[in-house]
Design a protein that fits this description.
This protein is of the alpha/beta class. Strand 8, helix 6 and strand 9 form a beta-alpha-beta unit. The termini are far apart. It is built from six helices and 13 strands. The longest helix is centred in the first third of the chain and has 15 residues.
C-alpha cells in the first residue's frame, strides 16, 4: 500500500554539526567527536525504523578532510534512506564534491509525497558567519515559484546551515546568516513554506514566525548553553531531530538525545 493511501507522514531525520576529523581519535574541546557521532548513529538505528530522508545540515567535518566525509557518508549509508548534505562554515564544498561515491548527496531539491525540500548553501569560505549568494537566493525564489505552480507540491521545507534568526545567546550575534532579511523576505511571500531547519548554533529550538516553524537541531558533539552572554558549553547530550511531514502540512518533530553515556567536555573554554 502506498504512503498516500495510508496517510502516513514523510519521516525526515536531521543530523548536524558532527565536526568529524581526519583522525577519528581527535577531540573538540576534549570531546571525541567520532565517539559522540557514533552514539547518535546508534540511537538513530535503534529508534528509526522507516526513514524517508536524512538531511545533514553542515559542519560535517571540523577539518574539511576527505577521511571525515567518507566516514560520515559510510555511516549514513547504513540506513536504507537517501541522505543529502549541505556545507557549513567548517566544511569545504569542493572537497565534498570531489567524493565520487557521494555525488548524489549534493542536491538542492527533493520531492517526497506532496512536500518539496529546498537545500541552500549558506557557507562563506574562511568565515564563521553565513551568507546566501545571489545564486542561492535566486534558487530559493525560483524553486518556490515552480513549486507554487506545481499541483503535486503543496508544502515546502527549507534547509540551510546557518541560523537565519538570532540564537539564544548574546555571544552568537554576528555568526548567523548575514543576509537574513533577504532570506526571510522570500520565505514570507510563499504561504506554503511550512518550516525552516538549520544547525550551526548547537542548540535545540522550535518556534513559529509568521506561521512558519523554525527548527534548530543540536550537534552530535558539543552543545552550546542557551541564554548566556559569553561562550559556554551546556551539559545536555548530543542529539538528532526527526520530523513527520503530513500531507495536510502539519509537522511533528522531536529531539532524540543520547542517554546512558557520559561525554567529557572542556567547560572552561572561551571558544573553539
Amino acid at each position: 500500500m502506498t504512503r498516500e493511501a495510508t496517510g502516513a507522514p514523510v519521516r525526515v531525520v536531521q543530523i548536524t554539526d558532527t565536526h568529524l576529523f581526519r583522525d577519528p581519535r581527535a577531540a573538540l574541546l576534549k570531546l571525541n567527536t567520532q565517539y559522540s557521532f557514533e552514539k547518535v548513529v546508534e540511537l538513530m538505528a535503534a529508534k528509526e525504523e522507516n526513514i524517508d530522508l536524512i538531511l545533514a545540515t553542515g559542519d560535517i567535518a571540523q577539518d574539511a578532510s576527505v577521511e571525515a566525509y567518507l566516514r560520515f557518508g559510510d555511516a549514513m549509508q547504513s540506513f536504507q534512506a537517501p541522505f543529502y548534505w549541505i556545507p557549513g562554515n567548517h566544511d569545504r564544498r569542493r572537497v565534498m564534491e570531489s567524493l565520487d561515491q557521494y555525488q548524489d548527496a549534493f542536491t538542492n531539491l527533493v520531492s517526497l509525497s506532496n512536500w518539496q525540500v529546498i537545500m541552500l548553501d549558506s557557507s562563506v569560505v574562511g568565515e564563521v558567519h553565513g551568507n546566501l549568494s545571489e545564486r542561492e537566493l535566486i534558487h530559493l525564489e525560483q524553486s518556490l515559484q515552480a513549486a507554487q505552480s506545481n499541483p503535486q507540491i503543496e508544502h515546502c521545507l527549507v534547509c540551510l546551515h546557518h541560523n537565519p534568526v538570532p540564537g539564544s545567546a548574546q555571544w552568537m550575534e554576528g555568526i548567523g546568516l548575514h543576509n537574513d532579511k533577504a532570506f526571510l523576505a522570500i520565505i514570507d511571500r510563499f504561504e506554503f513554506v511550512r518550516a525552516v531547519v538549520y544547525g550551526h548554533i548547537h542548540q535545540e529550538l522550535d518556534f513559529t514566525r509568521n506561521d512558519v516553524r523554525f527548527f534548530c537541531t543540536p550537534s552530535t558533539c558539543i552543545q552550546f548553553k542557551p541564554e548566556v552572554t559569553e561562550f559556554s558549553l551546556d551539559e545536555v547530550s548530543p542529539a538528532y531531530r526527526w520530523l513527520n511531514l503530513f500531507e495536510d502540512g502539519r509537522i511533528e518533530s522531536e529531539i532524540e538525545r543520547v542517554t546512558g553515556y557520559e561525554f567529557e567536555v572542556d567547560h572552561t573554554s572561551k571558544g573553539y
